[in-house]
């Protein structure tokens, strides 16, 4: 019974219920091949949700992840056009390093200047989006300008799944190991759960938040390359509004906005839930433009559910003196 009450179990049941309802009208949606395609479509959201999870665990939030993705993706595409013979691993490492640097800027502003994370990342979101336009001069980078190896990697298949899907699965495994076995991962929970106690335990909250932002930025940089290479186009408004879906995936997955609570598995299930809903909307005849409204409603409902689940009645220590 306790297992059923966990957010992960509830999300799993919700995903199965959605699939059953869709299969009742459209059996082709739940075929293994189509479900593999749905997972592959959701892979960028899963990767960004992993990075966002560790940020939220430290009582912060990163609204610039989609802008980071856009800037690093555009830079990777333009480097490939300028130097078509440059090895793809070098371009990927450059995108990851650039994304990590952009994330580190967020972390440094939060750490050293004590600016609220939502204010910092709203500002850098606008700056990074502006830099995409400045870097590209408003021009697109299209498929015929990109080299074949650049666009082939995310689409290459291994054991029946595209490399993009495998990278999402490896990311989930890596982040699970991080939060479970490494001191940095446990520090994320300690800082988010009780910053004062973390200080007494020798953990620097600011430094830990800086590390979380940098890690989130690195993942966004990798996803920037994968996004551009998979869709074979880079333009100014890449992944516009995608940060809302990333936050929604985390919150739906049970990651507490107050910090210190949540699991990587929950973030994965939250992303899968949104991915299935997004892919199912056209199938059932609903406009995909409802996706943003659904994501926003899901955030509100999940925050309310998280708040109710975390509210515990306090133990009464002192009792009022009985009247004479």
Write up this protein.
This protein has a domain at 46-241 and 258-264. It is built from 13 helices and 2 strands. It has helices at 7-25, 32-57, 65-82, 88-113, 117-136, 148-152, 163-181, 183-193, 195-200, 205-231, 242-252, 264-283, 290-310; strands spanning 157-158, 161-162. The chain has a two-stranded antiparallel ribbon. A hairpin with a 2-residue loop joins strand 1 (157-158) and strand 2 (161-162). Helix 2 packs across helix 11 and helix 8 (183-193) crosses helix 10 (205-231). The protein is globular and about 55 Å long. The termini are far apart.
Strand content is under 5%
Radius of gyration: 21 Å
Q: Could you report the average pLDDT, rounded to the nearest whole number? A: 87
- State the share of residues found in helices, binned by percent: over 70%
> What's the SSE pattern?
HHHHHHEEHHHHHHH
Number of strands: 2
Number of helices: 13
Indicate the low-confidence ranges by residue numbers: 312-320
Kindly report the spatial arrangement of strands forming the biggest sheet: 1-2
Shape: globular
Q: Report, as a whole number of angstroms, the end-to-end distance.
A: 46 Å
């Amino acid at each position: 019974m306790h297992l059923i009450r966990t957010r992960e179990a509830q999300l799993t049941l919700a995903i199965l219920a959605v699939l059953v309802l869709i299969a009742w009208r459209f059996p082709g949606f739940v075929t293994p091949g189509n479900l593999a395609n749905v997972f592959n479509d959701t892979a960028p959201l899963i990767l960004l949700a992993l990075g966002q999870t560790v940020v939220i665990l430290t009582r912060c939030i990163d609204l610039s992840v989609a802008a980071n993705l856009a800037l690093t993706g555009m830079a990777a595409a333009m480097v490939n056009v300028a130097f078509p013979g440059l090895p793809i691993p070098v371009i990927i490492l450059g995108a990851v390093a650039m994304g990590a640097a952009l994330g580190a800027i967020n972390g440094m502003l939060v750490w050293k200047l004590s600016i609220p994370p939502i204010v910092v990342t709203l500002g850098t979101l606008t700056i990074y989006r502006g830099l995409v336009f400045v870097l590209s001069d408003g021009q697109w980078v299209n498929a015929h300008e990109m080299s074949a190896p650049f666009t082939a990697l995310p689409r290459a298949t291994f054991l029946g799944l595209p490399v993009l899907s495998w990278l999402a699965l490896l990311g989930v495994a890596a982040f699970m190991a991080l939060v479970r076995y490494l001191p940095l991962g446990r520090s994320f929970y300690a800082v988010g759960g009780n910053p004062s106690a973390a200080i007494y335990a020798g953990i620097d909250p600011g430094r830990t938040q800086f590390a979380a932002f940098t890690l989130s930025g690195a993942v966004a940089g990798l996803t920037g390359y994968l996004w551009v290479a998979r869709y074979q186009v880079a333009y100014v408004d890449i992944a516009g509004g995608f940060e809302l879906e990333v936050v929604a995936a985390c919150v739906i997955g049970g990651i507490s906005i107050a910090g210190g609570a949540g699991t990587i598995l929950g973030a994965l299930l939250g992303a899968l839930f949104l991915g299935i809903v997004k892919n199912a909307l056209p199938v059932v005849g609903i406009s995909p433009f409802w996706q943003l409204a659904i994501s926003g409603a899901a955030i509100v409902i999940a925050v309310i559910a998280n708040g109710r689940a975390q509210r515990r009645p306090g133990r009464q220590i002192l009792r009022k003196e009985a009247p004479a």
